Amino acid sequence: MMKAGKLLRSLVLGTVAMFASAVSYGQDDVQTFRNFQFSFNRVSQAWTKTNDTLQKLFRQQGLSYPPSDIYIRTFKAQNEMELWARDNDTAEYKLVKNYRICALSGILGPKRVEGDRQVPEGLYFIEDFNPKSDFHLSMLLNYPNYSDMVLGDKAKPGGDIYIHGGCVTVGCMPMTDGVIQELYTLCLNAKLSGQTYIPVHIFPTRFTKTGLNFLGTAYAGDDAKQRFWVNLKSGYDYFERYHRIQPVMYTPDGKYVLQNN
Residue 4: enclosing H or E segment and its boundaries? Predict the structure, then answer.
């Protein structure tokens, strides 16, 4: 029978070996992803063109670069996309830059069915990077999420929602090619630095007094949208107060589990 000391040592060495193997696999996976992305000229050219500028921008804000934790917040009524970042998960996010969205299709309100030309509203993350997009470069959002599946059309909720170049849209968030080069480089660097899920939160407007008065007046008869926006506002208010975001969770009926204090 193996003595207790030898058994313990064997178990420890086995655990270390398994951990080392997992780390090696993860590193190999990241390197494979990096090699694939940079095998496309448009990605390497975007990185060469924008990376130094991004590094200077982050340094001016007192932030590390490449980033390991970024957050994107979008407001449809204003055609604005905000970039926030922080250096660790206990820090507050800092506003780094505002981007202009070229165009938006549809009206205010969430996307509920395929073909409605709506830009989604809700809490998403970047699911994939497309270096060979028809719109220069693009990043896929995880639409439909659970909330969309419950509250939208069960059979055809739609999909393929991207942040992309080309400055044209039928339900996505288009940028100029120059802007998507910068955003793609930034998000790619964050992913390569270990951020598996880059959050992208999309709101109809800023939930300020002016924004709320507009929504209340322009969509006074749309109870479904009003209930949805009240739910989203809780997450907006929380971020405005703390400059932190909450984990994305859902109730069985499709509401986001959010607090505002």
Answer: helix 4-38
The span from the CA of 71 to the CA of 84, in Å, is 5
Question: Cα–Cα distance between 41 and 104 in angstroms, integer?
Answer: 28
φ, ψ of residue 148 to 5 degrees: the values are -65, -40
pLDDT in tens, 2-36: 455 454 454 444 444 434 444 444 556 899 999 99
Q: Is the pTM of this model over 0.85?
A: yes
How is 219-260 classified by DSSP, letter by letter?
TTT-HHHHHHHHHHHHHHHHHHHHS------B-TTS-B----
Token output for 224 = 């479904």
Residue 109 sits at φ, ψ, to 5 deg, of 125, 155
Beta strands in the chain (DSSP E): 70-75, 80-85, 94-100, 122-133, 136-141, 162-164, 173-174, 199-203
Instruction: Give the span between the Cα atoms of 42 and 137, in whole angstroms.
Output: 8
